[in-house]
Amino acid sequence: MSVAALLPTRRVEAWKYSDLRAALGHQQLVLREGRDIIEQLAPGTQRLDVPAGEERLVVERMDDASHLDARAFEFSVSEGATLTRVLIQSGAATPLAIARVRLAKRATLRQFILAEGGKLARLETHVDVEGESAHVELNGVYMTGAGRHADLTSIINHHVANCETRQLIKGVAHKGGRGVFQGKIVVAKGAQKTDARQYHHGMLLQEGAEIFAKPELMIHADDVQCAHGNTAGGLDERALFYMRSRGVPEMEARALLIESFLVEAIPTGLPEELHNELVDRIRAWLAGGAT
C-alpha cells in the first residue's frame, strides 16, 4: 500500500474538514511509528517534563513557507507545576502539529495558538487530566485569507474529579479562506465536580469565506458543570456604523473591531514582549488587506 493511501481524507470523521491526502498525496513521504498520522509524518517526538512545583514557558514557531512541517510533542506536567505553551503558525505550506499533554494533581496547562493557516494547517492538542484539581486553559485564534486553511483540533479527557477546563477559540476567514475548529471534552464516569466550558466564535469577513465548527461534550458523570457554545456570523454592522458616525474611516473601523474580537482570546499573564508580538501579528494580518 502506498503512503498516500494511508493519509486521511474527508471520509475520516476526525478529518472531515481537512483532506490531508489531497494536500500531500503527490509528495514523497516517509512514515514512522506513531499513534496519529501527524506523529507518523514527524521526524521525531519532542518531549518535556515539567518538575513538580515549577513553571515552564514554551514558544514554538511554525513558519516554513514551502515544505511540509510536521511536529510531534509530548509534555508531562507534574504535581503543582505549570506549562504555558504558545504556538505561532505562519508558514503557508503544510504545517501539522500534535501535542499530547498529561497533567498531574494541581497541575496547570495554559496554551494559546495563533494560526494564519496554510495550504492545509492542522494543529492538534490532546490533554489527559490525570490528577485532581488540575486546570486547563486552551485558547486560540485563527486568521485565514484566500487559499489558506487552518484547523484547530483538540481533545481534553477528564479522568479524575475536581478539575477545570476553559477553552475559547476565535477566528476570522476572508474570501477563499477556511477556518476549522473541532473540540471535544470527555468527562469520565469518575470525574465528578468537573467544571468545563468550551466556546468557539467565528467571523466571516466576506462571501466565499468558510468556517466549520464541531464542539462536543461527552459526559459520563452526573455531578458536573459543563457547557459549550458556537457562533458564526459577520461583522457587527451596528458597531461599524457607530464608529463611522464618529469619523473613523471604514477600513480602520473594521480593523479595530476585528482586532478587539480576536485579542479577547489571548490569555493574560504572558510576558509583555510575547503578548505584544501576538497583538502585532494580528494587526499586521489585518493591515494586509484581509478586512
Features:
alpha/beta; 6 helices; 44% strand
What does this structure look like?
The chain is α/β, with parallel strands linked by helices and 291 residues long. It has one domain. It has six helices and 14 strands. It has helices spanning 3-6, 20-24, 37-41, 237-245, 250-263, 272-287, and strands spanning 45-50, 55-62, 68-77, 82-89, 94-103, 108-115, 121-129, 135-144, 149-158, 164-173, 178-187, 195-204, 210-219, 225-233. A seven-stranded parallel beta sheet has the order 1-3-5-7-9-11-13. Helix 4 (237-245) crosses helix 5 and helix 5 (250-263) runs antiparallel to helix 6 (272-287). The longest helix is centred in the last third of the chain and has 16 residues, at 272-287. It is globular, with a radius of gyration of 19 Å. The N and C termini lie far apart (45 Å). The mean pLDDT is 95.
| Rg, Cα atoms, Å | 19 Å
Number of separate structural domains: 1
Low-confidence stretches: none
What is the residue-mean pLDDT, rounded to a whole number?
Answer: 95
E-strand count: 14
Q: How does the major sheet shape up? A: 7 strands, parallel
What amount of the residues lies in strands? 35-45%
Measured distance between first and last alpha carbons: 45 Å
Task: Tell me the helix content.
Answer: 10-25%
From the helix content, strand content and strand pairing, which structural class follows? alpha/beta
Number of helices: 6
Give the overall form: globular
Layout of helices and strands:
Elements: H1 3-6, H2 20-24, H3 37-41, E1 45-50, E2 55-62, E3 68-77, E4 82-89, E5 94-103, E6 108-115, E7 121-129, E8 135-144, E9 149-158, E10 164-173, E11 178-187, E12 195-204, E13 210-219, E14 225-233, H4 237-245, H5 250-263, H6 272-287
Parallel strand pairs: 1-3, 2-4, 3-5, 4-6, 5-7, 6-8, 7-9, 8-10, 9-11, 10-12, 11-13, 12-14
